[in-house]
Amino acid sequence: QGWFGVPLFFFGIVSLAFSQLVQETETDSLPPDQRVEFLNDKLNDLSKILQGLREGSRNSFDLKKQSSIGNYNELVSVYGKNDPIPSSVFAMMEKTDETWQTRTAEIKQGINSVEARLNESKLILEDLNDNFAGRIEEAVPALNVLQENLSRTETEISALSSLSQNADKEALLAYSNIQK
Q1: Per-residue pLDDT tens for 5-55?
Q2: Residues 69-124: pLDDT tens digits?
Q3: How many CB atoms lie within 10 A of CB 93?
Q4: Are 117 and 157 in contact (CB under 8 A)?
Q5: Is residue 82 helix, strand or coil?
Q6: Cα 19 to the chain's mean position, in Å?
Q7: What does 52-76 look like in DSSP terms, one character per residue?
Q8: Which H, E and C letters describe 100-148, residue by residue?
Q9: CA nearest 115: which of 46, 171, 62?
């Protein structure tokens, strides 16, 4: 979980970086008009991935939480609310929910930040298209910078995706442990 996820996270980042190196050499050889098209497609793809992250996997968490609440209610009906067993289960449920809320808030903050940068990148690309309409080859240096920024943004989205998956796994595992 905690410490195991850190090396796994860095392994994912390193493998993504290597894939970016291969992809960058392929796109460097594209003519400027095709590079604009590539960047446009990349922006759309990253926006879709970000939207998927925003929606998240809240459903599986909510189902597990509801199941734990049902188990807690059964314990209360059998042992009473003041018994240590239901009390400890309730405390574990509160702790798990608090951890989930904290982690998802951090992830949402990251998503909002990346989304703002993606929107800025879209505006920059539109501006380049408008200002260099017939002579897009003059905008190649700006397109290179935009491509580098998108590469970093893609890495950040990958990191957010890993964080989101780890948060889901940890919360589901915690609720599974509560139900035992």
Answers
A1: 555 555 566 666 656 554 554 566 788 889 999 999 999 999 999 888 887
A2: 888 888 888 888 888 888 888 898 899 889 888 988 898 999 999 999 999 999 99
A3: 18
A4: no
A5: coil
A6: 19
A7: HHHHTTHHHHHHHHHHHHHHHHHHH
A8: HHHHHHHHHHHHHHHHHHHHHHHHHHHHHHHHCCCCHHHHHHHHHHHHH
A9: 46
Long-range contacts of 174-179 (CB under 8 A, 24+ apart): 174/92, 174/95, 174/96, 174/99, 175/61, 175/64, 175/65, 175/67, 175/68, 175/93, 175/96, 176/64, 177/92, 178/68, 178/71, 178/89, 178/92, 178/93, 178/96, 179/67, 179/68, 179/71
With 0.85 as the threshold, say if the pTM is over it.
no
Q: How far apart are CA 60 and CA 30, in angstroms?
A: 43
Q: Which amino acid is at 131?
A: N
Residue 97 has φ and ψ, to the nearest 5°, of -65, -40
